[in-house]
Each structure stands twice: as structure tokens, then as C-alpha cells.
Amino acid sequence: MIELILGSGDEGRKLGRYLEKLLPKAPRSFVFKALRQNKVRVDGKHAKEAELMLHAGMKVSLYLTDEQLAEFGYHQTKKEPEAPYHHIPILYEDENILAVCKPVGMLSQKSTAKDVSLTECMRQYLKDKGEWPEGTYEPAFVHRLDRNTEGVMLMAKTLQAARALSEMIKERQIDKIYLAAVSGQATIWKQETELKDFYRKDRKQNMASVEEYREKEEKTRLENGWEICRLKVRMIAQEKDASLLRVELLTGKSHQIRAQLSHHGYPILADGKYGGREKDGKTYSQMLLAAQIVFRECPEALAYLKGKSITADIPESFRRIFENPIQL
Asked: With contact defined as beta carbons under 8 Å apart, do 1 and 64 qualify?
């Protein structure tokens, strides 16, 4: 039997989800059975409902054996691997969110157990600051960037912030602005233009396909696994055989900007997967930057962020190509 006092990190979490986080190896059937059999109590009372809303300060008692706790993965303390973070620029931070600039070549989230991603680095940063939330919630980024794309990423430091940010992303209340350096003179996009295409991702090949949107094909395409991708694009600078594009992402598909710009004839420089090339024989990292995030309408928990923008510094690789100051 164990007794746990809920911390701020579990504020607003439902009891069933809390137990699943606490016992990660337990099947859901076991969690519901434990609730039915009076093996879970909250503040001394029999807790029967998985939907029970929890609050900081509550006491949760689990009447399980040590063998059951070990079998289902319970650990009183969980230690994250050491992860360096001092080279990662912090763009904004408050009690709810952390905004950083992800470096080129770093994973947003680890794909194997041995990886050290941006997530591990910034969790280590919060632990070293003494700001790790009590409870089962683990601070996490609410969106991703490709390994070779750098730029602004948002981490939710609290469960309430995670829910609020996820809702804002779903409702498109956060604008995501990118800079893309592409091959060719993209003068067709001197005025802001919305691109709308059919999109499909091959998970095995980790490759996105984009094809021209035709309204008469929409129903058939959607029935056959295609989706619709949309973005706004405007050329803001040009230099010889390269153009700098301001891109506003309207649908957040994996590899969308890279695949969609390439489909329209303007691949991103140094993006070999989608037809990009080196510039003037020089090697650059993939020339795509998640440059800015702008908060529009915000839920009550993050209302103070309404209208705020968070902007990454323009990398030297962009400044070497486009000599004039770059303005979003």
C-alpha cells in the first residue's frame, strides 16, 4: 500500500489517467478493476469513478502489493538522463510555458531509448532550476519540428498549460510563421498567396507526397487516404537564383512546407529529400526556420499571452545569402 499527495503537476487530471501514468505497464482493465474493488481511495474515500477530477493536495491511497507495483512499473522517483541544454537559446519563459529555439540536427522527441532530444534537454533545465512540477505530469513540447529544421518550439510546464496550448493549436489560435530560402525567383508570390494541395505521408519511407488540388477529386482522394494541406506564402527577398519566402502554416502536416514548396517548383535549399540543392556550391543546413509564433485568442489559463509574439534570431546561413535586413 502506498499513499501519495498530489502536487501542482496533477491539478485537473482525471483519476483514471493519473493511475495510468503512475502504473505505465498496467492494462486499463487492471486500473478499472482496482477502482471497482476498493483498492483506490482519494482523501480516505472509496474512489469508484475514473473520471474523478483531481486537485493539488489530495491524498491518493493505493492498496496494492509491492509485487503488483513493481510489475506495473511504479517508481517513486523517476530520473531523467543527463542532457546538455546550455547551448539552446531560451526565447521566453514564465510559470506556464517555455519557448526555445531548437538547433539544427536535434530531435524534438527521442525516437529510440538512447536518443537525447530537445525534450530531455529542457526537462533537465527545469530540474536544475528546481521547477520540476510535483506529481505525474512531465513538461513536454506541444508540437514538433523536423530534425534539420531549427526555430521556435513551445513547452508546456504545467498540465493546464499543455491543455490550453493543445486547444489553441487545434483551433488555429496560434500563428506559426516560417522563413524558407528556396531555389529560383519566386516572383509569382510577390503578393501573399494561399496554396492548397492534396497531401499524403508514407510513414515507412518518411516521405510526403503532394499533388495538385482539384475540387472534383476531393471526395475520392480523402476516401483513399489523402488529406488537404494549406499554407500562405509570400516572397520577401531575392538574391540571384534564390528567394526568401515568408510562410504561414495553416495545416500542420509532417514535412508539409518542404514537400509543398517543392511540388510548386521551389524546393528549399539544401533539402536533398525534396529536390533542394546547395547554393553557389556551398553547403548549408536545410534552409527552413520556424521563425515566429504569435498567440491570438487564448483560453483563460493563458489569457495574458494574447497578442504576444515569440521570434527566433535569423541564422547566419540566411544572412549570408540575403544581404538586406530580413523582415517578417
From this structure: yes
One-letter amino acid for residue 59 of the chain: K
- Secondary structure letter of residue 179 according to DSSP: E
CA pair distance 86, 92, nearest whole angstrom: 15
Residue 65: name the closest of 34, 19, 28 by CA.
Answer: 34
- Cell output for 254: 509532417
Contact of 297 with 170, CB cutoff 8 Å: no
Tell me the Cα Rg of the chain.
Answer: 23
**CA pair distance 242, 279, nearest whole angstrom:** 8
- DSSP-derived 3-state class of residue 212: strand
Q: Report residue 104 CA to chain centroid gap.
A: 15
Q: How far is Cα 193 from Cα 201, in angstroms, rounded to an integer?
A: 24
* Residues 264 and 235: beta-carbon distance below 8 Å: no
Q: Which residues are paired to 200 by β-bridges?
A: 209
pLDDT digits (tens, 9 = 90+) for 284-321: 578 999 999 999 999 999 999 999 999 999 998 898 88
> Measured at the alpha carbon of residue 233, what is the angle toward residues 104 and 153, in degrees to the nearest 5?
35
pLDDT tens digit string along 95-151? 999 999 999 989 999 888 778 899 999 999 999 999 888 778 899 999 999 988 999
Q: What is the rounded distance in angstroms from the CA atom of residue 233 to the CA atom of residue 248?
A: 6
Tell me the residue type at 237.
A
Cell triple for 194:
494561399
Query: Which grid cell is 218?
Result: 476531393
> Inter-axis angle of helices 28-36 and 15-22, to 10 degrees?
120
**3-state secondary structure (DSSP) of residue 121:** helix
